[in-house]
Known about the structure:
D-amino Acid Aminotransferase, Chain A, domain 1; alpha+beta; seven-stranded antiparallel β-sheet
Amino acid sequence: xxxxxxxxxxxxxxxxxxxxxxxxxxxxxxxxxxxxxxxxxxxxxxxxxxxxxxxxxxxxxxxxxxxxxxxxxxxxxxxxxxxxxxxxxxxxxxxxxxxxxxxxxxxxxxxxxxxxxxxxxxxxxxxxxxxxxxxxxxxxxxxxxxxxxxxxxxxxxxxxxxxxxxxxxxxxxxxxxxxxxxxxxxxxxxxxxxxxxxxxxxxxxxxxxxxxxxxxxxxxxxxxxxxxxxxxxxxxxxxxxxxxxxxxxxxxxxxxxxxxxxxxxxxxxxxxxxxxxxxxxxxxxxxxxxxxxxxxxxxxxxxxxxxxxxxxxxxxxxxxxxxxxxxxxxxxxxxxxxxxxxxxxxxxxxxxxxxxxxxxxxxxxxxxxxxxxxxxxxxxxxxxxxx
Length: 387
């Protein structure tokens, strides 16, 4: 860690530059964040190391063209009778983006593990943060810089994919908007299916003080993308989500939903669109996962807080912050409403630690025959404790 400079410090990971090196380091901590609060008062042992290892595994799998060539779904498309419901799958093999993934793998920013197990080496990219503007009594955000066809820059969107709608899914609160549902391909006059073959894709803001969901038109305009770039973004995320789902199914883990982030590369494609690169992290903090009926996700931590006065105050503070044009709504929560996050019981923290470590072991052993945490129960034992 000598000759490192802190570039950005987030609630769960920091970004470091290394003198005379062409990459950044993601340094994962044992801290965690829920409900957009930032760093919570507790820490989870070995969480940082586990997340770095898990992220590296997923980037290696998605970046490997052989994994795409050997995708069982493609074999099933060629032999249609093996699929119970082929609707939505038929065009995948013909997809230009699929062919690119099967030739080159997914372009991503991860170069591999750093010198320590809580470090990932990643491509240097720019983050262009929008300016907050007070306009007609509320905070607005200036994304005009994104209209300049930026390169090597983070796309300011969180991209959410959904294969199912479990109880409590935030999408239920948006189903009253007919236009929004039609964008997602949801038939509002019919009963929603329990699961989707092709994932629903949603977008929310990424670089604002609180996330807000966006229509497709809003997302495209915010990010300054052409029609073709936006179409390729949605298709890329859909294919990546489908491949993740099947990779996880190999080790008996169900992927329900998740979120991804992308950046623009430095090069242009032959069709004039900017290169898309998968960035940030992929793991239990970004994915909703089920194993033997247990959730392997931050949702278990969120459940702990939902009965607290602090959780109620968080919702109120966010509303007040928007109404009053105050970005730091957390300060409203603490100083005006008198609520701070409660501490988690030590036995719960031990279970959460086991969840991250056991999941890292589960993936490592299945895909690479590697075990990272030798003093950890297997995932079946941990799942029983989480249920």
